[in-house]
UniProtKB/TrEMBL annotation:
Residues 33-321 form the D-isomer specific 2-hydroxyacid dehydrogenase catalytic domain. Belongs to the D-isomer specific 2-hydroxyacid dehydrogenase family. GO terms for cellular component: cytosol. This is D-glycerate dehydrogenase. It comes from Teichococcus rhizosphaerae. Residues 114-290 form the D-isomer specific 2-hydroxyacid dehydrogenase NAD-binding domain. InterPro entries: D-isomer_2-hydroxyacid_DH, D-isomer_2_OHA_DH_cat_dom, D-isomer_DH_CS, D-isomer_DH_CS1, D-isomer_DH_NAD-bd, NAD(P)-bd_dom_sf. CDD domains: GDH. GO terms for molecular function: glyoxylate reductase (NADPH) activity; hydroxypyruvate reductase [NAD(P)H] activity; NAD binding. Keywords: NAD, Oxidoreductase. Pfam families: 2-Hacid_dh (PF00389), 2-Hacid_dh_C (PF02826).
């Protein structure tokens, strides 16, 4: 007699492919919406779930972890970031936490480069001009952007995504600098120049892009002094986490003209972001969609389910954090 499939709570909406697999391979309770932490805790208890598949709306702080039923043994995050939960508190209760570290590297790097190009080339303003009907030609000195090709790009956080951005930058003839907790080996650096100190790197960065986790570990990285350390006319891009940035300082740097432009996919308060950014013509905005392709969102859900399946089979999780 085959063993019973593992009991799984899916506390967020998944793509059709991942939803089909969850129904087929697990004793799954599937939410019809993205649950809150309280909803997920109650549903896990009602379903007697052994595993939970969650997203960022299930914010599991230490107190919420403490209220999880004893039968929950695995929390599978269908994303790379897990700053929406207290992983240490989960580990202290013997609960395994997993994420999906490899599947969204290329799409996040692609969007980061979209933001770099759009911010440098004033894409928001050009788009607005066309939507308004255009009708008046532009002269030689009008609405000029800056050329991204050949610029010096600083990358903060040279993990998988940072290295993928560096790979794309080389195609644009960029000089690549990076700051990381540790220096990479030469085969991973691929000619990128290491700075042990972020503040030492910033004055050299004509474009700066963030690619590191948010949360308490890193705190606010880009404050007023950090933005002031960038050369005048620099471009700032963030596809990492809004918590890394003092948004008042960023708005000040943009309105003063110290920064030429910014490309932003993440914000301190999502989705209720600071709408002062929307009023600035030199900011290109996207709504936290770095992983939002059909291929990657399928892969995120399926990889989270791979972790549940491996745990249930006694093989151990594939991507423990």
């Amino acid at each position: 007699m085959a063993p019973a499939p593992p009991r799984l709570l899916v506390a967020r909406r998944l793509t059709p492919a991942a939803t089909e697999r969850a129904r087929r391979d697990f004793d799954a309770m599937l939410a019809g919406h993205d649950m809150t932490a309280e909803e997920a805790i109650a549903a896990a208890a009602a379903h007697r779930a052994e595993a939970m598949l969650i997203g960022p709306k299930v914010r599991l702080d230490a107190a919420a972890i403490g209220r999880l039923p004893e039968h929950v043994r695995l929390i599978a995050n269908s994303s790379v970031g897990y700053d929406h939960m207290d992983a240490a508190a989960a580990h202290a209760r013997g609960i395994i936490v997993t994420n999906t570290p490899d599947v969204l590297t290329d799409c996040t790097a692609d969007l980061a480069f979209l933001l770099i190009l759009a911010a440098c080339r004033r894409a928001h303003e050009y788009e607005a001009l066309m939507r308004a009907g255009w009708r008046r030609g532009l002269g030689l000195p009008d609405m000029l952007g800056v050329r991204p090709s050949g610029k010096t790009l600083g990358i903060v956080g040279m993990g998988r995504i940072g290295r993928a951005v560096a790979q794309r930058a080389r195609g644009f003839g960029m000089r690549v600098l990076y700051h990381n907790r540790t220096r990479l080996t030469p085969d991973l650096e691929q000619g990128a120049e290491y700075f042990a100190s972020l503040r030492d790197m910033l004055p050299h960065c004509q474009i700066l892009s963030l690619h590191l986790p948010g949360g308490a570990r890193n705190g606010v990285l880009m404050d007023e002094a950090a933005f002031a350390a960038l050369p005048r006319g620099a471009v700032f891009v963030n596809t990492a986490r809004g918590s890394l940035v003092d948004e008042d300082a960023l708005i000040g740097a943009l309105t003063s003209g110290h920064l030429f432009a910014a490309g932003l996919d993440v914000f301190q308060s999502e989705p209720d972001y600071d709408t002062r950014f929307a009023a600035l013509p030199n900011v290109f905005l996207t709504p936290h969609v770095a992983s939002a392709t059909m291929e990657t969102r399928d892969a995120m859900g399926l990889r989270a389910l791979d972790n549940v399946a491996a745990f249930a089979a006694g093989r151990g999780p594939l991507d423990p954090v």
